[in-house]
């Protein structure tokens, strides 16, 4: 664990706290897996409302227990990790009870707790793109941290952390939108209703693009106030650097929804190869850019590399998704003529 924490920039007093937090999180990782998996099954069955309520309970418990463990029992980062782990455990239990309920049309029974090679062959190709995406994002984050430390010092890592947090807040609604249209696309693709598949993807991308454009404008106009939420006003250097990092890294934010939903779309229809390619495209393009740009432009090159990568990958994804939609509609028309 120690080398991994250091590789991600955990040095000095941050190292000990990071190790304490990671230890608790890793020990409780099985609870995260069950919470995510069971609630994803619930969403896949079309009960998005139940999943939303479960995760709202998770968030509420996390906040309450975090406050108790940190401020009452003075457990610090260990308390924060315990709160996160235990709240996920509660969320997993609630989801399991819901799936075992008589009201559930696909009720979990003991006879289902066995491996089925045929089912595994279906699940694994669909899940691999998400797995590879998460791994590639972790690698990119590691490289980001190392380069920030090399070209800008610890303060650059802090600025990058702030930008990452803000980006997560923007990405989550888009990912939620993408996951929301997943069952609709899947059902219609299975029913060969390709016009509905196209319409669903178009509506999702349009809604996501409107959201990202609004976020982009807010960042350009209110970058300093947004960053100041996460930075102590007594540290003007960090405030200025984080503002710069936010502006430079989010230049191509308006096309983010097209990238995410476009990459997701191939996963929806079971095209694992294209989904893997498009899901990892941003990271694959980003790695050489983020390594080469700082050589000439220093820390500025690190911050702007994300925008350049987003532009290139965005164009490629748009080309791919446009061709795929035309292909789906062509297949439908061919079937109609044959019949």
From TrEMBL:
Top-level taxon of origin: Bacteria
Q: Which GO terms describe its molecular function?
A: antiporter activity; xenobiotic transmembrane transporter activity
Q: Pfam families this protein is in?
A: MatE
Q: Which residues cross the membrane?
A: 20-41, 53-74, 80-101, 122-144, 156-189, 210-231, 251-269, 276-295
Q: GO CC terms on record? A: plasma membrane
Membrane topology summary? Multi-pass membrane protein
Keyword annotations from UniProtKB, A to Z? Cell membrane, Membrane, Transmembrane, Transmembrane helix
Report the locations given in the UniProt record.
Cell membrane
Instruction: Look up keyword Membrane and say if it applies.
Output: yes
Q: What is its main location?
A: membrane
List the InterPro entries hit by this protein, alphabetically. Answer: MATE_fam, MATE_MepA_subfamily
Matching entries from PANTHER family are given as:
MULTIDRUG EXPORT PROTEIN MEPA, SPORULATION PROTEIN YKVU
Q: Which NCBIfam families match?
A: matE
Name of the molecule in the record: MATE family efflux protein
Upper classification of the source organism reads: Bacteria, Bacillati, Bacillota, Clostridia, Eubacteriales
